[in-house]
Amino acid sequence: MRSFVPRSPALLVAVLAAGLAVACGRNDSPTERRYAEHCAACHSTGASGAPRRGDAAAWAPLRERGIPSLLESVKRGTPAMPAKGRCERCTDEELQALIRLMSE
Ligand code: HEC
Question: I need a labelling partner for 58 at 20 to 30 A (CA). Which of 6, 8, 48, 94 fits?
Answer without folding.
Answer: 94
